Fold these 3 entries.
Entry 1:
Amino acid sequence: MPHTKTISLTYHKNRLFQRGRKANGMAQQNGEGDPVTLFEVVKQGKSAMQSVVDDWIESYKQDRDLALLDLINFFIQCSGCKGTVRIEMFRNMQNAEIIRKMTEEFDEDSGDYPLTISGPLWKKFRYNFCEFICVLIRQCQYSIIYDEYMMDTVISLLTGLSDSQVRAFRHTSTLAAMKLMTALVNVALNLSINQDNTQRQYETERNKMVGKRANEKLELLLQRRKELQENQDEIENMMNSIFKGIFVHRYRDAIAEIRAICIEEIGVWMKMYSDAFLNDSYLKYVGWTLHDRQGEVRLKCLKALQNLYTNRELFPKLELFTNRFKDRIVSMTLDKEYDVAVEAIRLVTLILQGSEDALSNEDCENVYHLVYSAHRPVAVAAGEFLHRKLFSRHDPQAEEALAKRRGRSSPNGNLIRMLVLFFLESELHEHAAYLVDSLWESSQELLKDWECMTELLLEEPVQGEEVLSDRQESALIELTICTIRQAAEAHPPVGRGTGKRVLTAKERKTQIDDKNKLTEHFIMALPMLLSKYQTDAEKVANLLQIPQYFDLDVYSAGRMEKHLDALLKQIKFVVEKHTDMEVLEACSKTYSILCSEEYTIMNRVDIGRSQLIDELAERFNHSVEELLQAGEEADDDDIYNVLSTLKKLTAFHNAHDLTRWDLFGNCYRLLRTGIEQGSMPEQIAVQALQCSHYSILWQLVKITEGAPSKDDLLALRRVVKSFLAVCQQCLSNVNTPVKEQAFMLLCDLLMIFSHQLTTGSREGLQPLVFNPDSSLQNELLNFILDHVFIDQDDENQSIEGDEEDEANKIEALHKRRNLLAAFSKLIIYDIVDMPAAADIFKHYMKYYNDYGDIIKETLSKTRQTDKILCAKTLILSLQQLFNELIQDQGPNLDRTSSHVSGIKELARRFALTFGLDQIKTREAVATLHKDGIEFAFKYQNPKGPEYPPPNLAFLEVLCEFSSKLLRQDKKTVHSYLEKFMTEQMMERREDIWLPLISYRNSLLTGGDEDRMSITSGSSTRCLKVSSHGLFCVWCRGSAEESVESSWMMRNDTLQTPGALQTPQLTSTVLRENPRQAAEHLPEQNSEPGSESDYVHKRGLMEDDAEPIFEDVMMSSRGQLEDMSEEFEDTMVIDLPPSRNRRERAELRPDFFDSAKIQFYEKKKSLFTSLCSIVFI
């Protein structure tokens, strides 16, 4: 193709337009290398956009053809096209021909173009591109746009480009057209305002008396009004051309980003010029697109509607739209895209603010429950809706007056009651922390009104107020605790957000102020609350969480020690009154917080704590003596006295060092007595085990923190050894809770006192290291098999036949998972021998839903420790399953049974865990095959050598690991296999020998990653995909027939087939799907712009990552027709005549060019020939 010379605008750095051009038509440049094309000027953005536009207008006034040529090339280059429109092309060719020419010159090597390229430069270019179009129209609005040449040319070009097959042309021209339309809407709005002003001036002048009326002014006003009307008509024609020629087709484009542009801009038009555009004829497009399958398009719809619903004056015009599409908007609050759901909730909130009657109770309830969403932005948006609907005070002054009459200091009493009722009515959700967090941003003043909450809990209701029920009081206390936590910690609850973020200075100050406020209030209120609810375990347990959020310095700084004494007195009373572990642990934690050494109140609290423990310890020792002396004659009072005090001491021993009271001795006596006599109550045994465990841990802490002597180490070793022996004996206890407690403590202590105890320069602690012997390991393993891997029926029977609800089942599963995790840690850290894991791995498939994650993580960690031993453990687990199957079904296995398939599936899953790096796992996989082969030939068939070994079927399981062998390792493993085979085995072809045949075949093939393997036979030919990326043909047949026939046709040497030569493919063009090709052809009877026309035109668009052969609208054609009937179409589309205007159909023949069809046919024939070469 001969070199073509181009013409383009040249811009100087001093903003002067370069008028002179060379005779050959080439653009001139200044000596400083400044940008010379309009595209480069806009891309770099160094010049003010208004000056760039002014220069272009100056050039247009001198030669409008050359100026328009530069503008055309600007749009072409902004699309990423390297071609340039020449002056003779512009003057002599139609737009369709120009676009076809530019399409041929488009660079197809890359799919990127300016609007899609990432980076700050191109992001700025998009902004400059849009600004240039807006400024261009603004500067031309008084003269040039009405010359019937410039705008007709630009609109005609953009309409043609928007119908292009090339995505870059379509995307860029659509954005340009929509921004052009927005600028024209602004011009139309100004014209409308000027018309109104002119009309008003005319009416004013005409209404004057005849003598004072200025006829010349009336004539000027009439002439101006006529001129403005003509301009208005011209602008409306232009807007109609863009809307009908571009928008109505591109808002349903196959590319989501193009659809999003259209919806975003129509929202701008409706807000900017609501008198013209805010009607059902335009709103229906936004309503239909609410069903778009792409989230970004739905998001643009919602944001466009938000801009409209924000203005309450527009609500009357939105009434019909609201009624028609309200259900869809409400349903979008549950959108799978969280960003869309958030904006949908905000839009529903705006609708609620504009008209409370617009939403039904059912609509509101659909949004209410979202305050419990785990996604915080969704929950916060729902919280804003809930606040607007339920918790916003309609008449604050009246409510404050009512509160004063009732003697309340806060007017929020009724709102807090309403919050409590809402929380209780949310029966499916019991997450008060989530509810508080959702309302925190919108209802913070209400949620921080702790004085009002305390008043409702402490004071008696006045006349006209209802008494809070017990359930309501519990809910209010729970909500109060959550608000305190939110204020003190200043971050969302667990499960919301990615973690604690760094607070800003303002947020940090707010947090400190809130913490001081709640501390000063509850230091005085908490003792009174505990006094009122001291007998209610649930309420007390919640109230005792409050001190952990205190600023404890306030006690000493504010001279509030008397309130501290009152708090300690109430806590002591609670400890004496309750035996519930939740309450006792809350008391223990509160003492632990108050005893922090950094606060001056520590000594006062420590004295109170010591007095309490002295009393409990003395009572415990006395009750233990009485219980042991009574023996089998002990009554319920003796048992209760021991159990109640032991529970309290155990709860405190968890957070406090009580070793100086020597609780281990009496606990050990209780355990030994229970083992010897077998009559110790279950709960006493469980608590004694736990208390002894805490005592050992506190002794270990003292030893590790100090410089222990040898006697101290030996003394602790004796204690640990005796306790481990007791726990091991408890594993055979008849009571399940005792066994589970003993098992967990055994696992914990074996982990703590393992070889890792001496790491970190602690070699002196070597005497404390315990290694479990084989008998203990077997007992632990048997416990796991008996109590973890059980069926649901067994589980129900183990709980005394009681019916379990869903919550109890989940709790039971949680306990079993903890048991399995505790034992798995012993395997991972090499405390229990790794082969013990085989009994766990074999249950991977059967119990995948319950324990799959734990078993998989155990497998991964053990492989990191020792790859070879882990592989041996895997094959051992498969061998165990195989042996169990042999015992159940006998030596003649049905290889098609579900049990055999289950073992093979488990082997396949194990093979997948080896990953893709065969070099790293090479030795481990080879060892696995070696052990598998030895197992298969371990026993001879007692019937004689002509019969297969009993375990030969195991080779079929072993086939699942053959793909993980390297090529050279396959030969080695095959050679090892032949050592176990006799000549008779090699000659056998019966079905009973198929496992051996299949395994040998898997070793003889080159492997999927190394070569193509062809299995010849009468019914099957398979060509596998090579690692070089060849196209493949996979002909399916009977797998067993192919394997059998290949072995029947093999020669005696059984040489591995050589790899076929890989032909070099010169093209990656795939044949077109005939069905899709048929969809490219439009129906002859469809009208341009109709729904059917759109369905077929989508086939003309370029291939994209999105499925373009599906309708981009979620609504069917029938639904669209129904919607169209509901809206009155007030638009009249009248395309203005122009020599460059053409119908959209003119571009269609370009995409079925005979030259292009011949090109793809050549590609198709090349692909067919290559496939034939591969088969030859």
Entry 2:
Amino acid sequence: MPARTVSSLEDLSLAIPKIFDQAQVSIANHQKNYVALYKLHNDAAKHTEPINKGKTMKYVGEKIFQDVMVDMISRLLPLKKGTTVADRIIKFLGGYVKFANEKVLEDRKKSGAEVHEDTDTPASRFATRLLKFLLKGFLAKDKNVRYRVVQILSEVVQHMPELDEDLYSHIRESLLDRLRDKEAFVRVQAVVGLAQLYGTEDPADLEDDQLPVSEILLNTLAYDSSADVRRAVLLNTQINPVTLPNVLARTRDTDIVVRRLVYTVLENHCIPPDEAASGALGATDPRVLSIAQRELIVRNGLGDREPSVRSATAKLICTWLEVVGLQVEGDEPAKEVISFLRLFDLAENAIAEDALMSVFASRTDIFDNVEFGDQYWADLSPEKSFLARVFVDHCISIKDEARLESALPVVTLLAFRIQAMYNDLMEQMQDDEEQAFLRGEEEDEEERARKEDERMDKEFVIGEMLRLAVNLDYADEIGRRKMFQLVRDMISQEALPEGLLSRCLDVLRKLSPNERDLIRLVVEVVHELRDPEMDEKEASAVDDGDTTTYGETPMTAKTVKAAPKPPTEKTPEEKAQADAIDLRCLSLCIGMLERVNGTFEENSTLEGILGELIIPAVKRKELALREKGLVSLGLCCLIARRMALNSFQLFLSQVQSAPEPLKIRVLQIIFDMLMVHDRDFLGNDGVAGDRIIEFLLQVWGNEDSEKVQALMCVGIAKLMLSGMVTDERVLKSLVFAYVSPDTAGNQELRQCLSYFFPVYCYSSPANQRRMQQIFVPIFEELLQLYKDLDDDREMISPANIVAMFVDWTDPQKAVAARGQVADVLIHLDLATEIIRALFSKDMQKEDKKVLCQVLSKLYIPDAVDDDKIRSLKVLMYNLTSRRPLRDTAASNAFTRFDAAISKKFEKQLEDFNEEQYRQLESLKELFEFLDDIIPESDEEEEVPKKRTTRKRRSQSVASTTTTTTDRESSVAPSVDSRRGGKGKAKKRARLSGETDTDSNATEQPSRSPSAAPAPSRVMPARSARAKAKSKAVAQATSEDEEDDDDESTPEPATRKRGGQRSSKAAKKKEEEARLDAEIDGLLDEDEPDSIMDSDEGEADEVGELLEAE
């Protein structure tokens, strides 16, 4: 018997691998292998040994079984993510743990034993051993091992009925550690594992500094940088009122899949899977959600730029319709849709309209079966009127004439319905006023709110029917006259709600033959409202005495009205009534002017209300009247060029002193006027345009209101994008506003500019060129702003700023438009400007490193003009020889770019002679810039220790690749090699302030072909230093003046000899005396190349320097 036991246990090492071999092939045989493996497990569990005198048992067989299983599992741990066989084995392990635990419970039930989930069984002991083994791999260095152990643990834990408390704590802490793993796929599995602990955790058992797993997962959902991790949290988060706001926030996620997954998760939780028959509501049932949450889902989903997200949202909305329709009696689609519309606030925004349009597009069966019979129009509710209007709009959008014809009511019928509803509204408003007057403040708040809701519902129904009336067919003359007279009477009444005014004007615009008739009608209504007691004969008199019928163009009428009562004689009630009427008349004028496209001169009728109503309103002190008066005047200016020119200064003056609401309206008027009359205000002369732009920028810079800042940003961006404004100051201001820490909280401004800059740059090569030209100065200013930033404020880093400019100026991203040629040399010129900026001593090495590292990201085309590429090469060589980069990373990046340029344009750089290149007039500015660069003192420290014979060196930089080694092994000459003779070179060196050793030393032997000399200075170094330091230079007319000038000029750093001692006072005096003597000798000689040739030449040079000052 013992021999048989040993034999059966030894067979485990052969039998278990066979089961794993089958399980890794296909998941179809997993169930069969569960049974086989469980049988082996049970057989092994029977082999035990008593210990401690039989008090306890040693599970010998189980240990061997567990060892073999752990050995098999260890073999798959190093396998990478995506290995199919490993994923099948892991799934098999989780399934086996579940199968074994269920089998144990089933066997105990059959045997009649007491069933407890915490009973110690072979299955639970195996799972515990497996989990402890896996926890050891959580800190492995190999990312694949960490991934596999977390994956297996997450799979096994979800099938465990119960865990030991210590083991549970260990697993929880280990998973939280892996939630901060640097590898995203490891964090994904950690999320899956923590989700299994979601419902088992009791917040009361947590310590004070411990967060619940649910809160940790929600933080991960909001802040993890990996989209895969956020998707894992979405899929494994329980939807409830606590987690729902965090889930809805992901509708604005940056990842498309995450956004689409949100709507899929919401759809899956609309109907509870187990309680659908009982009538329980799902976690995301639309009736459970608030109106704000429903509108958020529809607005973000249907407004998403990705079609897949919009499709998922439409599917969710259709599910809402089905869920709500289950409670509706009957099979009429209209009733189902009406119940669906009750989920939204129809009067607030267009969210409900977008949702209903989505239903019509997705559910064609509902669109085809909706009917609008006579009974439908008899009792209109807000939902019914809204459905009819949106249905008609949808038919028009898809050009379904048949359905449109069947849905539209008869004009006369609709007119009577509108009239009846309007009369009910007026009666209710009158009754409410009477009740309020009689009761005073005794009316209950709930009753008052109920009446207000009823009034708003009736007003909404009238508005929807008026919107529907715009699309009616007015071929029926009787119906047209009825509708016209009805709407005309409505706008003539003071009690007409403000919200219905624009709807009535839309109908009148539809019914009016032309704009002049519409204007005449509105002017008549204005006069009737302001002078209700005027007699017809006194109201107007036509010159020819004829009556003008409707549809004809009236002659200009002369208004003959009685003198109004002076304001001083009016009572306060009369003044308030007059102001209310003026506000209504101004609203009518605004609505009418918004619908007029002709010029002011073509509609002379407008002159009357301009002088009688609009101008007096502008002069009023009451904010409401002045605001509407300014808006009306602004609309008049849009159709009257001369009036715009005369009134523009008025609007500018209102900007500075007006309160925020009025300032916003005035700025909108100003930008509209600039857009319409751009040639008059922003014309080619540039004087008026510059003043306007300067004023706007000043107002923008001094403004504290975020709304006003955002409005000005939008307006200025529109002017820039349309090409009306091309001033670089404006572009700089926009860039500053985009990256400034002061606008970090102004999301509207940031959103506008994040859209503006790519569109502006990619739409035109000229815009990219303009952006490239402002890069260096604005980068230097932003660097200073970044350095002066307080610790508690945040700003975009210089590296990100440079990356944005490189992206905006990329010529490969410019849109190919007809008539535009891409400027492929923008990045080449940008590289030139960057290298010029690297010459600056004021720029820190960290900032230079940022600029150097971006050079390799620039697009340099294959075909480049010789002058441009050689100019770039000269700049790069002079940078390494005169202003070498001290930072290793910056130097390496610059060297790589230099080598790439030298290799790419090797043929163009062959036989390049700098001496001949200096003769080109077009490159004069480049060499003046280089000649003004003073080499750093470190470059002057290395000198030849012994004289050598002068050798003529080539000035070619064709094959020069500037490296750190070249700088260390060579010395950039400070003497122009074009000057013949040692004497001249020596004098130039002395005037540059060098030591005696430097002056007498001849040039070094020519270097290797890979290291060419730096370009020599045309201007003496003394003058260059004076110019660089911005010191006044006096004209040298005598020896004494020259001596004084030399004494007043700071001594440049001298080169150090190997045996030279530290400078002392006596040594310094001797050196100064020697230099003075040598300078005196130079002044006595007559050298044609010397700057001391004549007073006239020196005066010219000093004049140039003073001009540069």
Entry 3:
Amino acid sequence: MFARKFLQKSSGGGQKPAPAPPTRGCLITEDLDPNIVTHYGIPSTASLLAFDPIQCLLAVGTLDGRIKVIGGDNIEAVLASPKQLPFKNLEFIENQGFLVSISNENEIQVWDLDLRQTVSSLHWESNITAFSILHGTGYMYVGDEYGMVSVLKYSADEGKLVQLPYYVPTDALAEAAGLSSPIDYPVVGLLSQPCSRGTRLLIAFSNGLLFLWDASEDRVVLVRGNKDLPVEGKTVGDSLEASHEELSDLQLDGKEISSLCWASADGSVLAVGYVDGDILFWEFADGQKGKPSNHAVKLQLSSAEKRLPVIVMHWCLDVSRKNCGGKLFIYGGDIIGSEEVLTMLGLDWSSGVGGLKCVGRVDLTLSGSFADMVLSPIASSRQSGMFLFLLTNPGQLQAYDDTSLASLMSQKENNISVSPLPYPMVVPTMDPHMTVAMFTALNVNDKTSLTLSEIVLAAKSRTPRTPSGEIAQWPLTGGVPSHLDDYKLERLYMAGYQDGSVRIWDATYPCLSLIYDLEPKTNGIDITGVDASVTAISFCSKTSCLAVGNECGMVRLFQLVGHKSGGTLEVITNTDKQGSLLVAHRLHQEDGPQWLAAYSFLSSPVCTMRFVESTKRLAVGFKCGKVAMLDIGAPSVMFVTNSFSDFGSPIKSLCVKSSSAPTDQNSINSEALDDLILCAMTKDGQTVLFDGNTGKILASCLRPLKNPTAICMHIIEDCYGNSEMPSEKPAENPSGKEKHEKKSHMVDANESHSPGGEQSAVIETILVDQRFANSLFLMCSEDVLRLYSIKPLSQGSLESIMEVNLPSPCCWMGILKKDKRECAVLLLYRTGHFEIRSFPDLEVVGESSLLSLLRWNFKPNMEKTVCSDDFSHVVLVNGCEVAILSFLAHANGFRIPESLPLLHDKVLAAAADATFSHFPAHKKNHDGAPKFLSGIIKGFRSSNEQKVDQVQDFSHLGNIFANPPYLKPSATGGDDEKIVELNIDDIEIDEPLTILPATEKDKKEKKDKRSEKEKLFDGASSDAQPKTRSVDEIKAKYRKAGETSAIASQAKDKLLERGEKLERISQRTAELQDGAENFASMAHELAKQMEKRKWWNI
């Protein structure tokens, strides 16, 4: 479903021997399968909306061939069309789990929401200009640029989209309009008339003609917009004091239609918007059949001569006006150059459509340029009533409920403003602005992880799914969340924001859920710089400690589980070389993550942080080029190094290695480790190894590059195992660059500041060399990828053994693991391309791109929020969108498809269908939602104001659309007429006639006085029907005593008798046919003779 591109390449450089079979941990092309695991947020290219009121699902179409489906409970899904083309139509097949889209190339696609892919498609030869789905059915109307209206049907059982024989003849429409030639103008609107059982269709042409077509009778019921007929009616302004003016000066010639919608519940009034900014209300009442007229009421939003076209219109009923008014939502029609708004008009025509008047107007300010809107009733446990969904660019979705709109209309003079309900993003990225992110996998067997799983389960039940403070909740509730019995917390996604807050999500399954929201400020305590923008995040799964660094140099320390702080927050500052200054604050903290400490000893922004595994230590790198080691158990600052770069280049990456780190959770401590080594890389490309206990520099590799930009660094554990390591001779630089000078730099202990004074600990270099014998340092910069081996530290240097020049500027590096071993490096270029290079030779084994996978283009600073775990999963952020990608073919840590939520609720659909079929008449609430939904649609609240409407049955449409117009099969009887099946044994054949003697024939003359015609049609007028016999009567007639052979003989006789009867019937038929031919010949001769006779001889 998603585009993938893999190219097998060979890396540059000199000739190499034939590759050996891949060793354990290496990656080949067949191991790759990039795909989307989950996607959140509204795409910035969103352009269309569609809504299913029963399933309560919203679909968003885009300009790049994607469809975003949104439900409730954080359920979201993205569907991608093979071609990256805009959609011009998007509609649900209501309550059936299918979505229909039309691309700019006129490709009609049917999407199965359960499979999340297309199940049928049909390419339309002409340009589609109008499209409509008959609600509740699979029937679709398609109008094209040549004025043709066709009918399609999607059958869920067959899984095919087919074009039916029925169509609307253009010559019949032209004849009804009084035109001499068929209509060839584009169809701009198709609307099924309410309460017509789907047989009546409103057809609008671009030239202004409106037709109401009845498919059951194959005729035009009403015609409107004919320029040859005089226009009757009034002109209405949008102001309350506007007076009505006559329409005698209105010219329909050249008046082009741009939008339309029904403006009444029964389809008696149609609102039509025009390119010139006018809005006309046309009457389509049944009482006007056969009366061609142009009775209309014109409404204008502005009296200016030049106005915007009326682009979109939607109407909803106002029950308080008893079907004689409502709200009309209009985009466009105002003066050119005015502020972009969505206009809501309150209309009333209680005295008839001719007396239509505007009783209120409200202009809703848009947050961006208008894209689309949907107006529909909703019945859910959160909200009920009429809702307006408004889509603006780029990718902003808002909703207004009926109550807020009514308050705006009724209290406009008080200047009351009602803010719309914004779409509650599962992962906020813009408000507040996300600055950094982390994606981490947990060991589900650790005690800490198990405890955290229990806490998460409890927290998920009480965490609101919409932001706190929102009085009205987001109304969508569609979809069914997945429920797996063996839940364990496996992954966490963490994000830091510009306002200093941090959010943590459970990312075990594709449906993310927020579990913690850590605010920067606490009541009663004012710490300077605590609400600064978050710049770095680090998490230790062994200790469940979370470190948060910001641009003011502060490091906040939290513990998610297993700690009781007793209400104390410790703030540590470093004032001089003699030690740290610790200030304790009494802090009341509720259940959840505990804020343990805040370190604030440097004013330089924090760039990177790394926990020392299974210890209570945290290494912190700053923008000024210094590195600090924090003891989070004491708490205290162990040491702070001098800047590793002569130019104060920021610390870009940190790695921590220790061979004697405790593995038992109970032995976690902050004591000094014998072989703790820290490796730091600055942005200008300098790499330094130093003692993790004292801060003493052990080795340094200084590379004076012209414009160096280091990206990341990683230590590859036992990369080669038993395989041969690459040659330690650096590969020849293909670009011809000179070898960079390697510089070893040793420092004394007094160059680093330790809170406890100078340390006397000495590193046993021999043990360290043995520890890192098979490990390599992988360092990535914008233009080159390098592998380093650790020479004996007594030499004080790092030596490069491989260099690979990169084809484009790189901005991010991640590591892929296979069988728990590093197998490849994943690179993201500023061009938006992914490149996968396998260890140990760094050969390219696969490629992909943001455009092919996500339809994204790379944007500046996107790399700051890219993160990955140890199982080939990468999380990316682009504007309001967040996506998780998986790159390995056999990696299914998210347990797809079992963990995917269902987009279509089959139980709800079955309940709705059963209710419709068992209740021929049901009541509706004032908002238009059926009352029966209160029992099946997620807690719908009923209302006292109700009205009765008949459930429409569309079963008869199959017979109507199965044949072309005017060629419907004639029915010989009603549907209720009983059909009687005849049996050959029930037919009585007349015996052959016997020629009587003349004397007897005379005696029979008086008895048989009937004419030859009566004899011919003997019995034709009889209404007698074959007698229906019961089973007992049949048994009594045909049952005979005797053996089986006798019964078989009797059956044989009956069969012979049956054959004789058939033969006699055939002979009788032939005789009747001959008699008919003779009679016709005799009549013809008689007619000729009568022609020769004069009139006086007759």
